[in-house]
Amino acid sequence: MDSKELPDLFRFDDGSRVVSKADWRRRREELLSHILEIEYGRLPPKPGWVRADELHSHVAEAFGNARHVQYQITTGPQGPFSFVMDLLVPDGNGPFPVILNGDGCWKTVTDEIAMLVLLRGYILAQFNRVTIVPDNAALGKNVGLYRVYPHCDFGAIAAWAWGYHRCVDILETLQDVDRSRISIVGHSRGGKTVLLAGAIDERIALSAPNNSGCCGAGCFRWQGSGSETIADITRAFPHWFPRKLAEYAGREAELPFDQHSLKALVAPRGLLQTEALSDRWANPEGSWQTFAAAKEAYTFLGVPEKAGFWFREGGHGHGPEDWKAFLDFADSLLFGKPVERDFSANPFPALGSCFSWKSPPVS
Ligand code: GTR
Questions:
Q1: In 3D, which of 291, 239, 198 has the Cα closest to residue 9?
Q2: Which member of 63, 78, 222, 249 has the greatest number of CB atoms within 10 A?
């Protein structure tokens, strides 16, 4: 087999193939288990309880009279462990859909972007994922959430994804929140986090990784020129992963999955990838390949339009242009609003496909 051929999403480990939606549920579990074991580690457990204490609330005139509410989220009984989530709630009557972003460490959500979100009628919820575990290999495992669950094997990306899930635990309980319309968005390593968090948590209606590359929306087997490999990423960021991933450096074709498998776990819920064509390190071609393969799962489940791909010229970044594309997709997916953009356009028509299988006929 061509070493770039992406594994058949629908073929169980025992060689049999998915023929029904019930089979797909089982195959989904099989894929998730492989992905967690090798790539991210198993997420820290869902805590016995999660609580939110309001730290602060005021009307922010600079944000069109949105209400800024700050919560301290605490989980237990292990720990206890706490971190902060901030909400900007649009002026007016809810419940409102929510956009949750964990890249508070980078402040990529500028005031301009916050206004874009609010003007479309969404709550903007934010936390700082590095308050869950730090983004620094040198600090070791005696910090943050690692100390609460010392016997688990999760890396930082899994811990950050756990942070998204705890925010959703709280968002679901708030009167202002339309719990059926919670979206998550993140950039680069934050995009890897969002893809993992959205693949696992079926409460999340839309997952939108931006420029997320290797171990995100990229591809292990199909590396475009200048793109990041398993060898590169595990050398530079060992703390993001369990040790096992590095064993696959140079042996990518032996992985029992590729990143199309993770994307397929998001189906039938919404998935939008936003990519930049000059962001070579993030492997835009590979991201398209795994998108096209994951779309087979959406086709099988009867909702091909719920998976979208958007690309722009330029390099690595998460700016207003990316957010506008995301908001258009969200408006269309969650509210059926008409959209001008084509979220299924192939930016690389000359590339050719790297999978020879198709989704089974819908039963
Ligand atoms: C890079 C890393 C990428 C990407 C990026 C980022 O250095 O190699 O995988 O995550 O950082 O997070 O901005």
A1: 291
A2: 222
What confidence tier does 2 reach under pLDDT thresholds 50, 70, 90? low
Three-class SS of residue 343?
coil
Does the Cβ of 213 fall within 6 Å of ligand 1?
yes
| Residue whose structure tokens are 């100390």 | 147
Tokens of 312: 């722009």
- C-alpha angle with apex 217: 211 to 218, nearest 5 degrees? 90
User: Which of 189, 194, 234 most suits a substitution to test ligand 1, by most atoms within 8 Å of the C-beta?
Assistant: 189
Q: What is the pLDDT of residues 27-54, one digit of tens each?
A: 999 999 999 999 999 999 999 999 999 9
Q: For residues 314 and 282, is the Cβ–Cβ distance under 8 A? A: no
Ligand 1 pocket, residue 327 CB under 6 Å = no
Looking at the whole model, is its pTM more than 0.90? yes
318-341 pLDDT, tens digit each: 999 999 999 999 999 999 999 999
Q: What is the DSSP letter of 40?
A: I
Residue of 281, 316, 318, 322 to test ligand 1 pocket, by largest number of atoms within 8 Å of CB: 281
Is it true that the peptide bond before 45 is cis, omega within 30 degrees of 0?
A: no
